[in-house]
Q: What sequence folds into this?
């Protein structure tokens, strides 16, 4: 009788241990396994967003206007999602995002999604970093920001070779207002981006955004810088310029508050204008 009791207890212990071990292993495996719930092993329509803070620094996040939508993803940068495809949710994974800020990319992507009637999933690759340019180490080829952007973009095309680079959306220039070689270095960056990105060519759309009008108008050298950016369309092919003056000037309720940055409304409007410029380039390239 005692043997039967001991045996039963022993057998019960083995059963309990077995299930505990399975449960532990399952938990461990789940913790170590990458989150693939949003990863789709298919082709993406890819948009690169690069430059400095006006790619993402618009204050005034709105949970309705800036709501994420299914089918628009981003290449994660922040731990634990680095190099993972995750939902494109504000703030996007630029280098130093803040929870109350938005950029133009998500508005752009939503309009593009409607335009293509949800035929493909969209992937945004955020590469913006505040206070960066060509004056010093930053966006020259072989600089950290340039090489980091290229490596992340090409990572996507190596992993998802059927994906297509639709456009590079660029917003930068404020830091380099007094930099004498700006025009040359900007043009060189565009040419090199198109050479270094897998699947890109001289007709890959490259779209540049104009700087905040109020800030620009405070100093003549800023107006000169804006003109250099605008006239990129005359120097290279398949270039678009997003004009913050047309169809009307983008302003804030208080232009003296954070003069150099668009607010969230301004970013959303820029997103709309980026998209209209994109459509024009695609139409003209046909």
A:
């Amino acid at each position: 009788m005692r043997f039967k009791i001991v045996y039963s207890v022993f057998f019960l212990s083995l059963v309990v241990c077995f299930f505990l071990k399975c449960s532990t292993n399952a938990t461990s495996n789940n913790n170590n396994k990458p989150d693939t719930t949003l990863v789709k092993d298919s082709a993406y329509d890819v948009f690169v967003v690069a430059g400095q803070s006006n790619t993402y620094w618009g204050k005034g996040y709105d949970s309705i206007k800036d709501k994420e939508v299914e089918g628009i993803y981003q290449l994660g940068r922040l731990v634990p999602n680095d190099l993972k495809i995750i939902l494109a949710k504000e703030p996007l994974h630029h280098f130093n995002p803040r929870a109350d800020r938005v950029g133009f990319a998500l508005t752009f992507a939503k309009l593009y999604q409607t335009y293509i009637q949800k035929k493909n999933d969209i992937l945004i690759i955020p590469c913006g970093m505040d206070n960066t340019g060509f004056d010093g180490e930053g966006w020259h080829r072989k600089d950290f920001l340039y090489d980091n952007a290229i490596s992340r973009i090409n990572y996507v095309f190596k992993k998802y070779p059927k994906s297509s680079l639709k456009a590079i959306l660029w917003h930068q220039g404020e830091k380099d207002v007094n930099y004498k070689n700006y025009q040359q270095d900007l043009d060189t960056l565009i040419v090199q981006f198109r050479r270094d990105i897998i699947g890109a060519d001289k007709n890959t759309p490259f779209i540049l955004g104009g700087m905040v009008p109020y800030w620009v108008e405070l100093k003549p050298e800023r107006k000169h810088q804006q003109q250099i950016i605008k006239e990129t369309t005359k120097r290279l092919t398949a270039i678009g310029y997003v004009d913050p003056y047309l169809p009307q000037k983008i302003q804030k309720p208080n232009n003296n508050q954070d003069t150099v940055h668009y607010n969230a409304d301004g970013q959303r409007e820029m997103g709309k204008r980026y998209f209209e410029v994109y459509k024009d380039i695609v139409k003209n390239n046909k």
